[in-house]
Protein backbone atom coordinates (compact mmCIF):
# COMPACT_ATOMS: atom_id res chain seq x y z
CA UNK A 1 0.00 0.00 0.00
CA UNK A 2 2.87 2.36 0.82
CA UNK A 3 4.25 1.96 -2.70
CA UNK A 4 1.24 3.69 -4.28
CA UNK A 5 2.30 6.94 -2.58
CA UNK A 6 5.34 6.96 -4.84
CA UNK A 7 3.18 8.22 -7.70
CA UNK A 8 1.34 10.83 -5.57
CA UNK A 9 3.72 13.69 -6.58
CA UNK A 10 3.06 12.76 -10.23
CA UNK A 11 -0.75 12.68 -10.11
CA UNK A 12 -1.44 15.35 -7.48
CA UNK A 13 -0.50 18.21 -9.89
CA UNK A 14 -3.01 16.81 -12.38
CA UNK A 15 -5.69 16.97 -9.66
CA UNK A 16 -4.81 20.64 -9.11
CA UNK A 17 -4.98 21.19 -12.88
CA UNK A 18 -8.48 19.64 -12.94
CA UNK A 19 -9.61 21.77 -10.00
CA UNK A 20 -8.40 24.92 -11.77
CA UNK A 21 -10.16 23.92 -14.99
CA UNK A 22 -13.58 23.40 -13.41
CA UNK A 23 -14.50 27.08 -13.20
CA UNK A 24 -13.19 30.64 -13.21
CA UNK A 25 -12.05 31.32 -9.66
CA UNK A 26 -11.61 34.70 -8.07
CA UNK A 27 -8.04 35.94 -8.07
CA UNK A 28 -7.66 35.25 -4.34
CA UNK A 29 -9.03 31.71 -4.61
CA UNK A 30 -6.87 30.91 -7.62
CA UNK A 31 -3.74 32.24 -5.95
CA UNK A 32 -4.38 30.09 -2.88
CA UNK A 33 -4.80 26.94 -4.99
CA UNK A 34 -1.71 27.72 -7.08
CA UNK A 35 0.63 28.30 -4.15
CA UNK A 36 -0.70 25.59 -1.83
CA UNK A 37 -0.62 23.03 -4.65
CA UNK A 38 3.10 23.56 -5.28
CA UNK A 39 3.90 23.43 -1.57
CA UNK A 40 1.83 20.27 -0.96
CA UNK A 41 3.45 18.50 -3.89
CA UNK A 42 6.89 19.26 -2.43
CA UNK A 43 5.74 17.90 0.93
CA UNK A 44 4.57 14.71 -0.80
CA UNK A 45 8.07 14.26 -2.19
CA UNK A 46 9.56 14.79 1.27
CA UNK A 47 7.15 12.22 2.68
CA UNK A 48 8.24 9.67 0.08
CA UNK A 49 11.93 10.39 0.44
CA UNK A 50 12.32 10.43 4.21
CA UNK A 51 9.28 8.75 5.82
CA UNK A 52 7.55 6.19 3.61
CA UNK A 53 10.59 5.39 1.42
CA UNK A 54 8.77 3.32 -1.24
CA UNK A 55 11.37 1.78 -3.52
CA UNK A 56 9.44 1.01 -6.72
CA UNK A 57 6.06 0.31 -8.25
CA UNK A 58 4.89 -1.26 -11.53
CA UNK A 59 1.78 0.80 -12.23
CA UNK A 60 0.79 -0.90 -15.50
CA UNK A 61 2.56 -3.81 -17.14
CA UNK A 62 1.36 -5.05 -20.52
CA UNK A 63 4.51 -6.86 -21.64
CA UNK A 64 8.30 -6.63 -21.38
CA UNK A 65 8.36 -3.50 -23.54
CA UNK A 66 5.34 -1.53 -22.27
CA UNK A 67 5.86 -1.44 -18.52
CA UNK A 68 4.88 1.76 -16.67
CA UNK A 69 7.36 1.53 -13.86
CA UNK A 70 8.52 4.06 -11.23
CA UNK A 71 11.44 3.98 -8.85
CA UNK A 72 12.88 6.30 -6.20
CA UNK A 73 16.68 6.50 -6.35
CA UNK A 74 19.15 9.23 -5.45
CA UNK A 75 19.41 10.78 -8.89
CA UNK A 76 15.62 10.92 -9.27
CA UNK A 77 15.39 12.60 -5.86
CA UNK A 78 17.92 15.26 -6.87
CA UNK A 79 15.97 16.11 -10.02
CA UNK A 80 12.56 15.90 -8.31
CA UNK A 81 13.58 18.21 -5.46
CA UNK A 82 15.13 20.67 -7.90
CA UNK A 83 11.92 20.77 -9.96
CA UNK A 84 9.57 20.98 -6.98
CA UNK A 85 11.46 23.71 -5.16
CA UNK A 86 11.77 25.92 -8.23
CA UNK A 87 8.09 25.32 -9.05
CA UNK A 88 7.15 26.87 -5.71
CA UNK A 89 9.12 30.02 -6.53
CA UNK A 90 7.60 30.13 -10.01
CA UNK A 91 4.09 29.78 -8.54
CA UNK A 92 4.61 32.82 -6.30
CA UNK A 93 6.22 34.80 -9.13
CA UNK A 94 3.47 33.89 -11.60
CA UNK A 95 0.71 35.15 -9.30
CA UNK A 96 1.66 38.78 -9.95
CA UNK A 97 3.17 38.34 -13.40
CA UNK A 98 0.05 36.68 -14.85
CA UNK A 99 -2.51 38.86 -13.07
CA UNK A 100 -2.90 41.17 -16.08
CA UNK A 101 -2.74 38.41 -18.69
CA UNK A 102 -5.86 37.01 -20.32
CA UNK A 103 -7.20 33.69 -19.04
CA UNK A 104 -4.66 33.13 -16.25
CA UNK A 105 -6.61 30.06 -15.08
CA UNK A 106 -5.78 28.35 -18.37
CA UNK A 107 -2.11 29.15 -17.84
CA UNK A 108 -2.10 27.54 -14.40
CA UNK A 109 -3.91 24.41 -15.64
CA UNK A 110 -1.03 23.62 -17.99
CA UNK A 111 1.49 24.94 -15.46
CA UNK A 112 0.42 22.15 -13.08
CA UNK A 113 0.06 19.50 -15.76
CA UNK A 114 3.68 20.21 -16.73
CA UNK A 115 4.77 19.78 -13.11
CA UNK A 116 3.16 16.34 -12.90
CA UNK A 117 4.74 15.24 -16.18
CA UNK A 118 8.20 16.49 -15.15
CA UNK A 119 8.03 14.61 -11.85
CA UNK A 120 6.94 11.56 -13.86
CA UNK A 121 10.12 11.85 -15.93
CA UNK A 122 12.27 12.07 -12.81
CA UNK A 123 10.71 9.00 -11.13
CA UNK A 124 10.64 6.79 -14.24
CA UNK A 125 12.35 3.46 -13.62
CA UNK A 126 12.72 2.42 -17.25
CA UNK A 127 13.17 4.06 -20.62
CA UNK A 128 9.67 3.44 -21.97
CA UNK A 129 8.08 5.18 -18.95
CA UNK A 130 10.47 8.09 -19.29
CA UNK A 131 9.77 8.28 -23.03
CA UNK A 132 5.98 8.40 -22.55
CA UNK A 133 6.21 11.23 -20.01
CA UNK A 134 8.84 12.95 -22.15
CA UNK A 135 6.33 13.10 -25.00
CA UNK A 136 3.56 14.22 -22.67
CA UNK A 137 5.86 17.10 -21.72
CA UNK A 138 5.68 18.36 -25.30
CA UNK A 139 1.87 18.31 -25.19
CA UNK A 140 1.56 20.07 -21.81
CA UNK A 141 4.10 22.79 -22.62
CA UNK A 142 2.84 23.50 -26.16
CA UNK A 143 -0.22 25.49 -24.90
CA UNK A 144 2.15 27.53 -22.71
CA UNK A 145 4.44 28.33 -25.64
CA UNK A 146 1.50 29.54 -27.78
CA UNK A 147 -0.18 31.27 -24.82
CA UNK A 148 -0.19 34.70 -26.51
CA UNK A 149 -2.27 33.27 -29.35
CA UNK A 150 -0.83 35.56 -32.03
CA UNK A 151 0.84 34.53 -35.30
CA UNK A 152 4.37 34.70 -33.83
CA UNK A 153 3.39 32.50 -30.88
CA UNK A 154 1.72 29.93 -33.13
CA UNK A 155 4.76 29.83 -35.41
CA UNK A 156 7.04 29.27 -32.40
CA UNK A 157 4.69 26.58 -31.09
CA UNK A 158 4.64 24.66 -34.35
CA UNK A 159 8.41 24.86 -34.55
CA UNK A 160 8.58 23.46 -31.02
CA UNK A 161 6.29 20.57 -32.00
CA UNK A 162 8.24 19.73 -35.16
CA UNK A 163 11.58 19.65 -33.37
CA UNK A 164 10.20 17.74 -30.37
CA UNK A 165 8.44 15.05 -32.39
CA UNK A 166 11.43 14.64 -34.70
CA UNK A 167 13.62 14.09 -31.65
CA UNK A 168 11.02 11.66 -30.32
CA UNK A 169 11.21 9.61 -33.52
CA UNK A 170 15.01 9.41 -33.26
CA UNK A 171 14.81 8.35 -29.62
CA UNK A 172 12.17 5.70 -30.29
CA UNK A 173 14.28 4.14 -33.06
CA UNK A 174 17.26 3.94 -30.72
CA UNK A 175 15.12 2.42 -27.97
CA UNK A 176 13.82 -0.28 -30.29
CA UNK A 177 17.36 -1.16 -31.37
CA UNK A 178 18.40 -1.62 -27.74
CA UNK A 179 15.30 -3.56 -26.77
CA UNK A 180 15.77 -5.99 -29.67
CA UNK A 181 19.15 -6.95 -28.21
CA UNK A 182 18.53 -6.80 -24.45
CA UNK A 183 14.75 -7.40 -24.02
CA UNK A 184 14.91 -4.81 -21.24
CA UNK A 185 14.84 -1.04 -20.87
CA UNK A 186 15.14 -0.88 -17.07
CA UNK A 187 17.51 1.69 -15.59
CA UNK A 188 20.47 -0.14 -14.03
CA UNK A 189 23.54 1.74 -12.69
CA UNK A 190 26.37 1.11 -15.13
CA UNK A 191 24.04 0.10 -17.96
CA UNK A 192 22.23 -3.00 -19.20
CA UNK A 193 24.36 -3.84 -22.24
CA UNK A 194 26.51 -6.96 -22.42
CA UNK A 195 30.17 -6.76 -23.37
CA UNK A 196 30.29 -5.37 -26.90
CA UNK A 197 32.37 -7.11 -29.57
CA UNK A 198 33.73 -5.44 -32.69
CA UNK A 199 30.98 -6.83 -34.93
CA UNK A 200 28.24 -5.17 -32.85
CA UNK A 201 29.95 -1.82 -32.29
CA UNK A 202 28.32 -0.04 -35.24
CA UNK A 203 24.86 -1.29 -34.19
CA UNK A 204 25.21 0.10 -30.68
CA UNK A 205 26.85 3.30 -31.93
CA UNK A 206 23.81 3.98 -34.13
CA UNK A 207 21.46 3.25 -31.21
CA UNK A 208 23.33 5.66 -28.92
CA UNK A 209 23.65 8.35 -31.60
CA UNK A 210 19.92 8.21 -32.31
CA UNK A 211 18.99 8.56 -28.64
CA UNK A 212 21.63 11.20 -27.94
CA UNK A 213 20.38 13.36 -30.80
CA UNK A 214 16.71 12.60 -30.04
CA UNK A 215 16.83 13.55 -26.37
CA UNK A 216 19.35 16.27 -27.21
CA UNK A 217 16.62 18.26 -28.99
CA UNK A 218 15.01 19.32 -25.71
CA UNK A 219 18.49 19.78 -24.20
CA UNK A 220 19.18 22.52 -26.76
CA UNK A 221 21.88 20.61 -28.63
CA UNK A 222 23.24 22.53 -31.63
CA UNK A 223 22.10 22.30 -34.47
CA UNK A 224 18.78 21.13 -33.00
CA UNK A 225 18.36 24.21 -30.84
CA UNK A 226 16.44 26.84 -32.79
CA UNK A 227 13.09 26.02 -31.14
CA UNK A 228 14.50 27.30 -27.84
CA UNK A 229 15.02 31.00 -28.70
CA UNK A 230 11.78 30.96 -30.71
CA UNK A 231 9.88 29.86 -27.58
CA UNK A 232 10.81 33.18 -25.91
CA UNK A 233 7.51 34.51 -27.27
CA UNK A 234 5.87 32.83 -24.24
CA UNK A 235 5.29 34.67 -20.93
CA UNK A 236 8.39 34.93 -18.73
CA UNK A 237 7.29 32.30 -16.17
CA UNK A 238 7.03 29.87 -19.11
CA UNK A 239 10.45 30.93 -20.39
CA UNK A 240 11.89 30.35 -16.94
CA UNK A 241 10.39 26.86 -16.78
CA UNK A 242 11.50 26.00 -20.33
CA UNK A 243 15.07 27.22 -19.87
CA UNK A 244 15.74 26.46 -16.23
CA UNK A 245 13.62 23.56 -15.07
CA UNK A 246 11.09 21.55 -17.02
CA UNK A 247 11.98 21.07 -20.67
CA UNK A 248 15.72 21.52 -21.06
CA UNK A 249 16.55 19.83 -17.76
CA UNK A 250 14.27 16.94 -18.66
CA UNK A 251 16.33 16.57 -21.82
CA UNK A 252 19.52 16.57 -19.74
CA UNK A 253 18.06 14.11 -17.23
CA UNK A 254 17.06 11.76 -20.07
CA UNK A 255 20.62 11.91 -21.44
CA UNK A 256 21.92 10.98 -17.98
CA UNK A 257 19.61 7.98 -17.88
CA UNK A 258 20.54 6.62 -21.33
CA UNK A 259 24.26 7.30 -20.84
CA UNK A 260 24.74 5.83 -17.37
CA UNK A 261 21.73 3.56 -16.84
CA UNK A 262 21.11 2.05 -20.30
CA UNK A 263 24.43 2.03 -22.18
CA UNK A 264 27.01 2.65 -19.46
CA UNK A 265 30.40 4.38 -19.82
CA UNK A 266 32.23 1.20 -20.86
CA UNK A 267 29.89 0.46 -23.76
CA UNK A 268 29.79 4.07 -24.99
CA UNK A 269 33.58 4.33 -24.90
CA UNK A 270 33.88 1.02 -26.76
CA UNK A 271 31.72 2.24 -29.66
CA UNK A 272 33.24 5.77 -29.64
CA UNK A 273 29.91 7.31 -28.69
CA UNK A 274 31.62 9.74 -26.31
CA UNK A 275 33.77 11.18 -29.13
CA UNK A 276 30.66 11.57 -31.29
CA UNK A 277 28.81 13.38 -28.49
CA UNK A 278 31.77 15.63 -27.65
CA UNK A 279 31.81 17.13 -31.15
CA UNK A 280 28.20 18.31 -30.79
CA UNK A 281 28.70 19.42 -27.19
CA UNK A 282 31.74 21.62 -27.83
CA UNK A 283 29.97 23.19 -30.81
CA UNK A 284 26.93 23.80 -28.59
CA UNK A 285 28.99 25.49 -25.85
CA UNK A 286 30.76 27.88 -28.20
CA UNK A 287 27.89 28.52 -30.64
CA UNK A 288 25.47 29.40 -27.86
CA UNK A 289 27.94 31.92 -26.42
CA UNK A 290 28.74 33.53 -29.79
CA UNK A 291 25.06 33.85 -30.67
CA UNK A 292 24.19 35.32 -27.25
CA UNK A 293 26.65 38.18 -27.73
CA UNK A 294 24.79 39.38 -30.83
CA UNK A 295 21.34 39.55 -29.18
CA UNK A 296 20.03 42.94 -28.08
CA UNK A 297 16.80 41.53 -26.63
CA UNK A 298 17.19 40.59 -22.96
CA UNK A 299 15.21 37.34 -23.11
CA UNK A 300 16.85 36.17 -26.33
CA UNK A 301 20.32 36.82 -24.92
CA UNK A 302 19.46 34.60 -21.95
CA UNK A 303 17.95 32.01 -24.31
CA UNK A 304 21.17 31.58 -26.29
CA UNK A 305 23.09 31.61 -23.03
CA UNK A 306 21.01 28.62 -21.95
CA UNK A 307 22.12 26.68 -25.03
CA UNK A 308 25.77 27.25 -24.16
CA UNK A 309 25.35 26.40 -20.48
CA UNK A 310 23.48 23.18 -21.26
CA UNK A 311 26.56 22.17 -23.23
CA UNK A 312 28.54 22.39 -19.99
CA UNK A 313 26.20 19.91 -18.34
CA UNK A 314 26.28 17.48 -21.25
CA UNK A 315 30.07 17.76 -21.27
CA UNK A 316 30.24 16.47 -17.72
CA UNK A 317 28.18 13.44 -18.70
CA UNK A 318 30.36 12.13 -21.55
CA UNK A 319 33.92 12.76 -20.30
CA UNK A 320 33.51 9.71 -18.03
CA UNK A 321 35.49 10.96 -15.07
CA UNK A 322 33.98 11.12 -11.56
CA UNK A 323 34.87 14.81 -11.20
CA UNK A 324 33.35 15.63 -14.57
CA UNK A 325 30.14 13.81 -13.71
CA UNK A 326 29.92 15.64 -10.39
CA UNK A 327 30.61 18.92 -12.20
CA UNK A 328 27.92 18.23 -14.79
CA UNK A 329 25.34 17.37 -12.14
CA UNK A 330 26.35 20.40 -10.06
CA UNK A 331 25.93 22.62 -13.09
CA UNK A 332 22.50 21.12 -13.75
CA UNK A 333 21.42 22.20 -10.26
CA UNK A 334 23.27 25.52 -10.15
CA UNK A 335 22.35 26.56 -13.69
CA UNK A 336 18.69 25.94 -12.88
CA UNK A 337 18.93 28.25 -9.86
CA UNK A 338 20.88 30.91 -11.73
CA UNK A 339 18.93 30.92 -14.96
CA UNK A 340 15.49 30.97 -13.35
CA UNK A 341 16.64 33.98 -11.30
CA UNK A 342 17.96 35.77 -14.39
CA UNK A 343 14.71 35.16 -16.26
CA UNK A 344 12.69 36.32 -13.26
CA UNK A 345 14.77 39.52 -13.19
CA UNK A 346 14.25 40.17 -16.90
CA UNK A 347 10.56 39.34 -16.55
CA UNK A 348 10.24 41.82 -13.68
CA UNK A 349 11.94 44.51 -15.80
CA UNK A 350 9.48 43.83 -18.63
CA UNK A 351 6.47 43.70 -16.29
CA UNK A 352 7.31 46.87 -14.36
CA UNK A 353 8.90 49.04 -17.05
CA UNK A 354 7.86 47.51 -20.37
CA UNK A 355 11.52 47.51 -21.49
CA UNK A 356 12.79 44.52 -23.47
CA UNK A 357 16.08 45.68 -25.03
CA UNK A 358 19.48 46.08 -23.40
CA UNK A 359 19.95 49.71 -24.49
CA UNK A 360 16.60 50.60 -22.87
CA UNK A 361 17.68 49.79 -19.29
CA UNK A 362 20.12 52.70 -18.83
CA UNK A 363 20.14 53.84 -15.23
CA UNK A 364 17.84 51.05 -14.10
CA UNK A 365 20.37 49.99 -11.46
CA UNK A 366 19.62 53.16 -9.49
CA UNK A 367 15.88 53.02 -10.06
CA UNK A 368 15.49 49.34 -9.10
CA UNK A 369 18.67 48.51 -7.14
CA UNK A 370 17.52 45.28 -5.48
CA UNK A 371 16.39 43.78 -8.76
CA UNK A 372 19.55 44.71 -10.65
CA UNK A 373 21.84 43.60 -7.83
CA UNK A 374 20.15 40.21 -7.87
CA UNK A 375 20.63 40.07 -11.64
CA UNK A 376 24.30 41.05 -11.29
CA UNK A 377 25.09 38.47 -8.61
CA UNK A 378 23.35 35.76 -10.61
CA UNK A 379 25.22 36.79 -13.78
CA UNK A 380 28.56 36.67 -11.94
CA UNK A 381 27.66 33.17 -10.78
CA UNK A 382 26.87 32.07 -14.33
CA UNK A 383 30.22 33.39 -15.52
CA UNK A 384 31.91 31.30 -12.82
CA UNK A 385 33.80 33.91 -10.81
CA UNK A 386 34.95 32.59 -7.37
CA UNK A 387 33.45 31.96 -4.85
CA UNK A 388 30.12 31.53 -6.66
CA UNK A 389 28.38 28.22 -7.28
CA UNK A 390 29.07 28.53 -11.01
CA UNK A 391 32.78 28.48 -10.28
CA UNK A 392 32.41 25.29 -8.22
CA UNK A 393 30.67 23.33 -10.99
CA UNK A 394 33.01 24.59 -13.72
CA UNK A 395 36.05 23.77 -11.56
CA UNK A 396 34.92 20.15 -11.33
CA UNK A 397 34.28 20.04 -15.07
CA UNK A 398 37.72 21.46 -15.89
CA UNK A 399 39.63 19.22 -13.46
CA UNK A 400 37.81 16.14 -14.71
CA UNK A 401 38.70 16.99 -18.31
CA UNK A 402 42.35 17.58 -17.43
CA UNK A 403 42.51 14.31 -15.48
CA UNK A 404 41.34 12.56 -18.65
CA UNK A 405 43.97 14.36 -20.70
CA UNK A 406 41.42 16.43 -22.64
CA UNK A 407 43.10 19.84 -22.43
CA UNK A 408 41.08 21.10 -25.41
CA UNK A 409 37.92 20.76 -23.32
CA UNK A 410 39.38 22.88 -20.51
CA UNK A 411 40.37 25.52 -23.07
CA UNK A 412 36.84 25.51 -24.53
CA UNK A 413 35.42 26.00 -21.02
CA UNK A 414 37.74 28.95 -20.39
CA UNK A 415 36.85 30.54 -23.74
CA UNK A 416 33.15 30.09 -23.09
CA UNK A 417 33.50 31.67 -19.63
CA UNK A 418 35.08 34.75 -21.26
CA UNK A 419 32.26 34.86 -23.80
CA UNK A 420 29.71 34.55 -20.97
CA UNK A 421 31.25 37.61 -19.35
CA UNK A 422 31.13 39.31 -22.74
CA UNK A 423 27.35 38.98 -23.06
CA UNK A 424 26.35 39.49 -19.41
CA UNK A 425 28.58 42.35 -18.23
CA UNK A 426 27.19 44.80 -20.84
CA UNK A 427 23.73 44.35 -19.29
CA UNK A 428 25.13 45.15 -15.83
CA UNK A 429 27.20 48.12 -17.03
CA UNK A 430 24.24 49.56 -18.96
CA UNK A 431 22.01 49.38 -15.89
CA UNK A 432 24.51 50.76 -13.37
CA UNK A 433 26.98 52.96 -15.22
CA UNK A 434 24.98 54.64 -17.98
CA UNK A 435 22.75 57.53 -16.92
CA UNK A 436 19.01 57.26 -17.33
CA UNK A 437 17.44 59.40 -20.07
CA UNK A 438 16.15 62.81 -18.96
CA UNK A 439 12.56 61.75 -19.60
CA UNK A 440 12.91 58.41 -17.77
CA UNK A 441 10.00 57.33 -15.58
CA UNK A 442 10.39 56.52 -11.90
CA UNK A 443 9.87 52.84 -11.04
CA UNK A 444 9.11 51.56 -7.57
CA UNK A 445 10.14 47.92 -7.19
CA UNK A 446 8.71 47.86 -3.65
CA UNK A 447 5.20 47.80 -5.11
CA UNK A 448 5.91 44.44 -6.76
CA UNK A 449 6.81 42.23 -3.81
CA UNK A 450 5.54 38.99 -5.34
CA UNK A 451 8.06 39.48 -8.14
CA UNK A 452 10.99 40.77 -6.10
CA UNK A 453 10.87 38.52 -3.03
CA UNK A 454 11.24 35.20 -4.94
CA UNK A 455 14.15 36.76 -6.85
CA UNK A 456 15.89 37.86 -3.64
CA UNK A 457 15.46 34.47 -1.96
CA UNK A 458 16.77 32.63 -5.04
CA UNK A 459 19.78 34.97 -5.17
CA UNK A 460 20.51 34.19 -1.51
CA UNK A 461 20.35 30.45 -2.31
CA UNK A 462 22.78 30.97 -5.21
CA UNK A 463 25.25 32.69 -2.89
CA UNK A 464 24.87 30.08 -0.14
CA UNK A 465 25.36 27.13 -2.51
CA UNK A 466 28.55 28.79 -3.74
CA UNK A 467 29.92 29.28 -0.24
CA UNK A 468 28.71 25.93 1.13
CA UNK A 469 28.48 23.48 -1.79
CA UNK A 470 29.71 20.38 0.09
CA UNK A 471 26.29 18.90 1.06
CA UNK A 472 25.26 18.83 -2.61
CA UNK A 473 28.70 17.64 -3.73
CA UNK A 474 28.60 14.74 -1.27
CA UNK A 475 25.24 13.55 -2.61
CA UNK A 476 26.43 13.77 -6.21
CA UNK A 477 29.71 12.01 -5.39
CA UNK A 478 27.72 9.12 -3.96
CA UNK A 479 25.81 8.85 -7.26
CA UNK A 480 29.04 9.05 -9.23
CA UNK A 481 30.56 6.14 -7.30
CA UNK A 482 27.67 3.84 -8.23
CA UNK A 483 27.75 4.49 -11.98
CA UNK A 484 31.36 5.23 -12.95
Write the layout of secondary structure elements.
Layout: H1 8-22, H2 27-52, E1 56-61, E2 67-71, H3 74-97, H4 104-123, H5 127-145, H6 151-182, H7 201-216, H8 227-230, H9 236-245, H10 247-263, H11 265-270, H12 273-293, H13 298-318, H14 322-353, H15 364-367, H16 369-383, H17 389-403, H18 407-433, H19 449-467, H20 470-483
Antiparallel strand pairs: 1-2
Helix pairs in contact: 1-2, 1-4, 2-3, 3-4, 3-9, 3-14, 3-19, 4-5, 5-6, 5-10, 6-7, 7-10, 9-10, 9-14, 10-13, 12-13, 12-18, 13-14, 13-18, 14-16, 14-17, 14-19, 14-20, 16-18, 16-19, 17-18, 17-19
Keywords:
2 strands; mainly alpha; 484 residues
Plain-language structure description:
It is a single chain. The protein has a domain at 308-484. 55% of the residues are buried. It is built from 20 helices and two strands. With 484 residues, it is an all-alpha fold. The mean pLDDT is 88. It has helices spanning 8-22, 27-52, 74-97, 104-123, 127-145, 151-182, 201-216, 227-230, 236-245, 247-263, 265-270, 273-293, 298-318, 322-353, 364-367, 369-383, 389-403, 407-433, 449-467, 470-483, and strands spanning 56-61, 67-71. The chain is globular. Helix 3 runs antiparallel to helix 9 and helix 3 (74-97) packs antiparallel against helix 19. Strands 1-2 form a two-stranded antiparallel sheet. A hairpin with a 5-residue loop joins strand 1 and strand 2 (67-71). The two termini are 34 Å apart.
